[in-house]
Amino acid sequence: MPRVILCFMLILGLLAMLPPIIAAQARSTPNPNLPINIIQDMDLQSKFKAQSENELFADGRSQRPQVAGTVARDEAYADTHFNEGTVGGQWATTNPAQVPLTLALLQRGQDRFNIYCTPCHGYSGAGDGTVNQRALELVSNVDGPVNGTVWVAAKSVHDAAVTVQPIGQLFNTVTNGVRNMAGYGSQIPIEDRWAIVSYVRALQRSQNASINDVPADKRGGV
Hints:
CATH topology of the domain at 80-127 and 155-207: Cytochrome Bc1 Complex, Chain D, domain 2
CATH superfamily of the domain at 80-127 and 155-207: Cytochrome c-like domain
CATH architecture of the domain at 80-127 and 155-207: Orthogonal Bundle
Shape: flat
Number of strands: 4
Order of helices and strands: HHEEHHHHHEEH
CATH class of the domain at 80-127 and 155-207: Mainly Alpha
Radius of gyration: 29 Å
Distance between the termini: 96 Å
Number of helices: 8
Structural class: mainly alpha
C-alpha cells in the first residue's frame, strides 16, 4: 500500500479520535458556565436556593421563619413531647405517654441500638465501635493516614457532657443528628427512637450506679 494512503488513513484515524476525547474532557472538567439546555424543564426558573440572600426582607434571608403559632394540619404533630422531645419549649425529662418505660421498650431499644448505633458507639456505648476501630487504624497507619483519612471519634454516651442531657435532648440527637453524627429521623420510626434513648439511659445507669440502686435483699449476691 502506498505510503501516502497510509499517512492519509493515519490522519483520518487521529481525527476520528478527537470528538470522543473532547467529549470526555468536557464531561470531566468543571465549567462555571451554565449548560446549554435545549429543553429547559424549569432548570432556569426564578427561585431562591436554601441559605441564599433576599433583599426583599429586612433580615436579608430568603428562607422565612415559621409563623408564630403555626401547627401541622395533622394534630398528632402538635404533641411536641412525642415528636420533638420538648415540653413547653424545654427538653423533656421523661418519656412521652405513648412510650412508657417498660422492660419490653428497653429490649426493643437494645435491639435497635445494636443495629444502628454500635458500628460507631460500640455495644457498651463507649464510642469504640468497629467503624471507630477501623478509622483509627487508617489514621495511624505507619506510612501516614490512608487517602488522607481524618476521623472524629464517636462520643461515648458515658461522657459527662452526655449523661447530663435530658432524655428529650438525646431523642433530638438521634432524630436530627449532632456535629458529625447524621440524624436517623428518616430511617428509624419515632417509637423506636424513644426506645433507643431509653436504652441509652439504661447503659448510662449501668456505669454510674451505686449500691443504693440495688434492692437491699439483692445486695451481696452474685
